Amino acid sequence: MRVVRTIDALQEAKKNLSGSIGFVPTMGALHKGHLSLIQQAKKENECVIVSIFVNPTQFLEGEDLESYPRKEEADIKICELAGVDVLFMPNVDQIYEKDELSMGAPAIRGYILEGEKRPGHFDGMLQVVMKLLNLSGAQKAYFGKKDAQQLALVTQMAKTYFMEVQIVPCDIIRDENGLALSSRNVYLNDEEKYRALSLSKSLKRATKYIMSGELDTEVIKSEMLEVLKEADMVEYVAIVDREFNNLKKIEIGNTILLVAARVGKPRLIDNLWI
Ligand code: AMP
Fold first, then answer.
1. How many CA atoms lie within 13 A of 48 on its CB side?
2. What is the pTM of this model?
C-alpha cells in the first residue's frame, strides 16, 4: 500500500494502478462501517483508493473540527490489512486554495434536516467530495447510507455535473446492540452509549408498526418520539421519500425514516430505508 500526502504523489501512485478504481472517501478514525465500504470497493474493482481528510469547510463554527478523533497510525494499519492500494492523506493546503470557487448545495434538499441543523455543512461536503472524486479518477465511489442525505446530494451532484463516476450506496453497519457505528461514538460513555440506542430502537419500533400495517407517518413519528425520550435532545424525526420529500403515508420501497438526536456530547444520526 502506498501512503501519499500530496496531489503529485497521488498522481504518481495512480500511474502504478491498472484496471478499475474504487474510491472510499473518509474522515478517518476508521471503524467497521468504513471497512465495509472498503471491502465492497475491493470486491467490485481491481484497485482501491481511500482518502482520509478531515474537511474544515463542512464543519460549522463551534463544531468539533479541532477535537474530531484522529487515529492516523491505526487507520494506516486498517487500510493496509484491508488491501487498499493507495491511501491519500492530504493536509488542508493540498486541497484548498485562496479565493476558491464555491459549491452550493441545492436550496431545498441541502437545507432541510441535517442541512437545517448544520447550515452550510453540505456546501463544504460537496466541495470536498467533488475535488476528491476528480483526484481519485475512480469509476465507482462508495458512500454509506448512514449519511443518507449526504449520499442523496452526492448522487445528485454526480448527475448534475455529468460526472462519470458511479455513486454506490452501502448498508449501515451497527454494533452488536444496534448502535450505528460512527467515529463520534468515542465521545460516548457507557451510560450515554446505552441511551444512544434509543435512535436504533426508535427505528425498530417504527418497523414493528409498519409491519403490522400502520402506514400513517404521523402515528409512526410519535411512536418513535416515545422511544427517543431517552436521548438528551431530539433534533428531528422525519419520514421522507428517496427524494427527501415529506411523506404522509409510508411507501414501501421508497421511504427513509431519519432521526437525529443529541446524547451527551455528540449529535447522532441514524436511519432506515424501507
Ligand atoms: P466519515 O468518515 O464519517 O466521513 O464517513 C465516511 C464514509 O463512511 C461515509 O460515506 C459514511 O456514510 C460511511 N459510514 C460511516 N459510518 C458508517 C456505518 N456505520 N455504516 C456504513 N457506512 C458508514
1. 22
2. 0.98
